[in-house]
Specification:
Layout: H1 8-18, E1 21-26, H2 33-41, E2 46-49, H3 53-65, E3 69-75, H4 76-79, H5 83-92, E4 96-101, H6 113-126, E5 130-134, H7 137-154, E6 157-162, H8 164-167
Parallel strand pairs: 1-2, 1-3, 3-4, 4-6, 5-6
């Protein structure tokens, strides 16, 4: 069987290694499935499955206090769950990189996903996150790298919003 060609997940893992990310919190998500699998298989990182997204914000504070770097992987529908906790991150100047897979942005089948997709960029910005958007695969690696540097060099939350054109469109079956 020929080797699998590199994907945006490979580019993100390269950034995680270069930036010495040690803890990756996530709520299971189809769009992040390959990246989550890669993190779980990596012996240099601790993959932390969550029951709710805001747990990942608390984990990132603990990682920072312990001298480690953490990333939170989540879907746009879970971004709203984090807003109160992100206020603490902003106020305390804790660095946090959020990789957010956007639902409701491109060929969405579920109408419930659209309101939060529309609100996510402005809501995250309103709580103090720097927001960067990615709508093609070629932008993922460089954008995640720049966002990671911005978060950890300036001690602030930075969210990279990855459009469905990058992570794939879910279909109702």
């Amino acid at each position: 069987m020929p080797p699998t060609p590199p994907t945006w997940s490979d580019a993100v893992m390269d950034v995680f290694h270069a930036q010495k990310i040690r803890q990756v919190a996530y709520v299971p998500d189809t769009g992040l499935k390959r990246l989550i699998e890669m993190v779980r298989a990596d012996k240099t990182m601790q993959a932390v499955p969550l029951t709710t997204e805001e747990e990942g914000v608390a984990m990132a504070v603990g990682a920072c206090l312990g001298g480690e770097r953490a990333v939170l992987l989540l879907q746009s529908s879970g971004a709203g769950n984090c807003i109160n906790m992100l206020g603490m991150i902003t106020e305390c100047r804790v660095p946090l990189l959020l990789l957010v897979t956007m639902r409701g942005t491109w060929a969405e089948f579920n109408p419930w996903q659209i309101p939060m997709a529309e609100a996510t960029p402005s809501v995250l910005a309103a709580i103090g996150c720097v927001v960067k958007k990615v709508d093609n695969v070629e932008q993922v690696g460089p954008t995640v790298s720049a966002a990671c540097q911005l978060a950890f060099n300036t001690n602030r939350p930075v969210a990279v919003l990855m459009d469905q054109r990058v992570v794939g469109v879910k279909e109702f079956k």
